[in-house]
Amino acid sequence: MAERRRTAAALSLGLLLALLPAARAAAAARDMAQILAQAAAGDWRTLPTDRLLVLRLPQGRVVIELAPRFAPAHVAAIETLARAHYWDGLAILRVQDGFVAQWGDADAGTARQRAPPASLPRALPAEYTRALAGLDFTRLPDGDVYAPEVGFAGGFPVGADPAAGRAWLLHCYGMVGVGRDDPPDTGNGSELYAVIGQAPRQLDRNLAVVGRVVQGMDLLAALPRGHGALGFYRDAAHRTPILWARMADALPAREQPHLQALRTGSPAFAALLAERRQRVNRWFVYRPGKVSVCNVPLPVRVRPPARSASGHP
Hints:
24% strand, alpha+beta, five-stranded antiparallel β-sheet, nine-stranded antiparallel β-sheet, single chain, 5 helices, 20% helix
């Protein structure tokens, strides 16, 4: 009996020693709030104002970070339209539940349509993919249904096909794309949409994705839904007007957004990915050990005030 007790005690001690590293790791695990609070200053990048499109709605402002590395011609067209004040007084025309919010000219295609700037190309190339080479691609190890590989580059969710050497932006929540007709080269940047629902990944590589909403996503997501076909408003009075749209660098200095995004190649983002995959929060009974690319948050914050040499703001 004594020998049996000694054997049981030895097994218990061995089990405890085996579990100790895991227990220490669990104790050291950080949730997302802790990871962001402890991120180094270099883990954040400042969003340049000449790459931010600002929409002013009656409810507040929406800020979109544009992605010229993926769709340079479309982004250039959007900048041209914003600097010409093209969207001022137009409206959000369509809000389809679980899908997109779309804005542009309700009279497009009619004699009453708003004339775009003379310098705007009539048609743009189908910028649906770009070369994978040259991207700071952070691969997610968990696989994907729609792409051979997925991950992140430059602050955006990205799909990749290493065999073909191509990469593209994904239709995750908050991503912004350019509407078009059936021919691939019929979008000119004047009609934009933002994903407000479940990620419609079937649209990947079928439309030009030009950026993502980095501030004001709650405003777009809360817009009243349209009850016409595809979420278009039957009554024009129900549309949300766009008071104005500007590139951020064209705004007075006091009105410019001062935002930073977590670098997707940073140690803090690597820790965030691990947290999202393992779900260290004690609430989770089952920890999946995997995460979908569109379920990884891409944190944005207001840029902290600069500090003097004395350490004070």
